[in-house]
Amino acid sequence: MDKPGQGDIGSSGAGTGSGAVELVMTAVLLAVLGGGGALVNPIIGVVGGSIAILFYFSIVINQEYERAVVFRLGSFDRVLGPGLNLKIPFLEWVQVIDYRVKTVNVTPQKVLTADNVTTTVDAIVFYKVREDSEEIRKSVLEVEDYEKVTVNYGQTMLRAIIGERELDEILHNRDEIADNLRDRLDQATNDFGIHIRDVEIQDVSIPESLERAMASEAEAERDRRARVTHARGELQASARIRAAADVLGSGGYKLRTLETVDNVAKENSTIVTIPAEMMPGGGDDEGGSPVQGLVDKVTEDVDLSDLDIGEAADKLAGDSQDQEDTQN
Length: 328
Hints:
The chain is of the alpha+beta class. 51% of the residues lie in helices and 19% in strands. The protein has 10 helices and 8 strands.
C-alpha cells in the first residue's frame, strides 16, 4: 500500500490510471468466467485475478517531468525515472516529485527600514526541485514540506534585507534587492534539493503622508533642474554675445539694441522705450539733453505758426520764456 506524502502518490502520477484499472478488472473477469458466463475453475480464477491485481500494483508510470522516490519497508531504496517502472507490491511505495518550475508568493512583510520608515514589501519566488537523483532524494528525506520551508525562508530573508537598507535605496534598487534575496534563498534551500530560479519584488508600499512628501520633493527637484538648465542656456548665450561684441565693437551692441527695439515695436505697443545712447546727441554733448535733442529733431521742420492754438499757445510760449530767463 502507498504511503501519503509530498506529491501525488499512487495516483495518476504513479500508477496505471483509470485505463489500467479497467484492464485489470477485465483480465480478472476473463480468468474467472468462461465463455458462457459459468465458473470454469475457481482456483484458476483466483490465481489469475491475484496475478492481475499484483501486476496492477507493481506498475509505476511517471511523466517526463516526474520522478518517483521508492521506499522499501520504510527505507529509501531508489529513484524511478520517467516512463513505465516496476515495484514490489505491498512492500514498496512511491512518492512522486514534480520538478517543473513553480511559483510561490511571499506574503507582504511590514518592515522598518534603516532610516526608520515603515514599509510593506512583498515578493514572488520561482523555484524547482533539482533534477539530480540525489537532490530529489534530499527534497523528500531532508524536509517535510519544501514549499512551506521555502516560503518561510523567503519571509525572514526579505525582512532582513529590507531592514538593512534605507527607503530611497529600496525604491530605486529593486532588482539588486531581488538578486540578493535570490542568492541567499538559493543557498539556504540547496540543503534540501531546491533551486531558486528567480525572485521578483512585486510592490513596495509606504505611508500616504510620505508619498505626498516625496511627490513634493520630486516636483521641487524638477523645478530646480529646469532653472539650472535655463541659467546654463543664458550663460552660453551671454558668452556668445560677448564674443560677438568683441568682434563687432560698439556698433555690434547698437545693432543688437536696434533689433530688440524692432522686436518690441512688432508687438503693437503704443509706447516704445529707446535707450538714451541711441538718441540724437547720445548724451555726450556738454550741457545737451538727449531727450531735448530728439524733440528738436522732430519739431525742427514743423511750423507752429500754422496751428491756431490761440492764447494757450501764447501762454505756453511765455511760460517757456520765463523758465529760460530764470535758469539764466
